[in-house]
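Worked problem 6 (solution included).
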Amino acid sequence: MQKRAVFKSISWVVFQVVFIALIGILVGDRTPAQNPINIGGLRPIINSGHGSNVYALNYSLDGKRLITTSSDNTIRIWDIQKGKEIRLIETGEDNITGIFAQSEAVVVGAFGNRLVLWSTKTGRRIYSSNVAVRRVSDIYVSPDSSLLALGADGDLLLWDVKKRKVLRKIKEPTKKEPSVYFLSFSPDSTRVFFEHAGQIYIDDAKTGQRISSFKAEGDPMSFGMSADGNTIASGGGIDVNADFWDVRTEKLIKSITPSKGTQIGSIAFSPDGKRLTLLETHHRLRLLEAGSYRVIKDLGSEAEVLYSAVFSPDGSTFATTSLNGVIKIWDARNGDLIKSFQKRTAEITTFDISHDGSNLAFGADGGGIHLLDLTGQKKNRITKISSSEIQYLSFFPGGELGSIAAGDEREENNFKYTVEYFQPLKRKRYSRFETSIFYLGFRFSQTGAFVAVVDPGKKIMVWDVRKSERVRTFDFETEMIPAFAVSPNGKRFATSESNETAQLKIWDIATGRLLKSFDEESLFQDMIFSKDGRLLAAVDDEDNLVLFDMVRFTKLQQIKLGTPYFDERDTFTDFHFSPDQKYIASMDFQLKIKIWDINTGRQIKIKVLPEWVRFRENAVVTRINGRMIVAKAEYGGIRLSDADTGKSLASLTFFKGNNWAVTTPDGRFDASEGAFENIHFLDRKRIRDVRAKSLTNFDQGLLQKVLRFRN
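Solution. The predicted structure is:
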């Protein structure tokens, strides 16, 4: 009896487990998994469109798709009818010279002196080879897709697409200009047209023999050819006409004058021979009737065209790129806008993280200071606390936030700016005042209590931010003051000046008296006081970090940083003193952090960054829950990584309407309710639309887990 009872008990338990399991299968689990994984190989991506300038685009051969590339290091393929992105190719490089659909399966690009081909079916790189030149300046595919013409270093290379090799190099009669520009083929692919050193040449594409050449007006900046191959157009420099030439007679047919002070940047003929577009450098676009050159529609500058207009294969539409990442498609008959592929993300203009790691503040295109609670206590809501056009913001040790917002333009490079200083969490504003700032020249003290701004007329004004009072105005005889700093207590002011020699000057703010002048071999590009004002660190344009004693007014140490101060994007090195002022940390534009001993000038070898390290300029580096975090602005958002290991942790993307999404390298994601429509999933290279919350790699509270506010 006991055995039978035990058997019945076990059977009943098993029945309950199976029944509950069946119910779970039928109903489905409505809660996200606690330990999500990337199911089915789907990788979440943000459907943001291009995050930066779209500088190359073309139609597919059937006219149903657009292929675009941008400095965000991606190639994107768009379904025109559906109006959405269907494929993403991450190139890892942003120097694509040209992009063309050689067939439905190939996209062509040039990186420096490399020629690269991708498959649009798989998104994989299928060919990459160096071209025997220093730099490819232009690239064009023949109408029959058999040849590529590459302009490079004063030569023209003809490249066989099928054989994937250079057929011939056509030498030019002059080497006064470094490159061949503005290539084009005749409609039957038998002739190649190009410009070099102000001369237009026509060569036989098969033999390379010269057919004819003639001189263009000015220095041509654009080049185009009619569909029948009988008309060539060229546009020159500032205030130079767009000229149209008859290829057969080599005679000028028509000249069109650009707007005053501009030049023709692009000329495009439609394949059906009915239309042409003229783009000026100030983004004015005109649609004309080919042959009569009658203006059908002047789109003006509202088209926001950046580089060029490209016609569809049948000539019925044309597409344009813009400075803000927007792609537009227009009706070639009347110039009306048909469709627009809008950028979905909010462009981050400036950001900072509070010293306790609890809040992130950022400025975005469209204006305003936006505050995101990183702890999750406010359910990751983004709060807009200002509507001004923010140029700069920074958190200070006490939780205060200082910001500078743009106002109305008063004269060239001279704007009225609004300076605000407040406690964002307490919604308490300490001060708000307006001042003129020349070329955005300003510097907050480390506490944010003081700010120095460059005013037109060789003046620098020092303001007490809390009191909204101007405490001192310094007049200078020189216009070259590349660096200046205010001590945290507002008593000292340091400037780097160029008179007959480079000088570092230390001033008393209360009296305006010069306290000390140091003669230097080169100008300083940046400088910062220590927290107590006893030390000053300055970096010169020879990449030396020089340390000064502000009590004895002596030079303490000169340290060779070993890294260029500026890079090509004008980002620069940042510095931070240790609390005991025995060490100073530097971070270069590649985000490499070094610790230096102030007494010896030697670099200290460390495995883990000390707790006192914090940076604000090229990236925000701050400690959050025991781990040093690097936050770096990227297209449409911020990338978070571990400062000690370099490991990528997460990408935070912001959308218009105060929505956000976060993704991690292992495929997990989370988002605000309004952002789920912008999350697509990459199956290899193909974008798939699925119900985001149904996937097990949806991880609610992901940002707090990454930052260790939650387990």
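Discussion: Residues 112 and 135 are 5 Å apart (CA to CA).
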